[in-house]
Write a structure and sequence with these properties.
The chain has a six-stranded mixed β-sheet with strand order 6-3-2-1-8-7. Strands 4-5 form a two-stranded antiparallel sheet. The protein contains three helices and eight strands. It has 104 residues and is of the alpha+beta class. It has one domain: SH3 type barrels (Roll). Strand 1 and strand 2 form a beta hairpin.
Length: 104
């Protein structure tokens, strides 16, 4: 597990499969808070173990929360979740099925 620091605030947050879900807005104790992108696919959002009702706000916008343990790595550009927190099982399966049908 990579523990994010204040230096990571402002980085994009991505799922284990590399889909951007938002920006790291805040770190507070055992949790991180994410400013979710407005255009996340509902299926993808449903696969992410995230609390969208935290009561924490930034610039009037509600922030989503996850435990620090959800973070697998942090690079110069992004904070990435472990597959167990954002593995996209349902969204990936639906996307793969659509791609297979298009190729047929």
């Amino acid at each position: 597990m990579a523990t994010p620091t204040e230096a990571d605030v402002g980085k994009r947050v991505v799922t284990a499969n590399g889909h951007t879900v938002g920006t790291l807005a805040r770190i507070d104790g055992p949790g991180i808070y994410i400013d979710l992108d407005d255009d996340i696919e509902p299926g993808l959002l449903g696969d992410i173990k995230i609390s969208q009702k935290t009561g924490v706000k930034s610039d009037g916008k509600n922030l989503a929360g996850m435990p620090l343990a959800a973070v697998a790595s942090s690079t110069d550009d992004e904070v990435r979740f472990w597959p167990s927190y954002a593995g996209e099982s349902k969204a990936a399966s639906a996307t793969d099925a659509s791609a297979d049908e298009a190729e047929s």
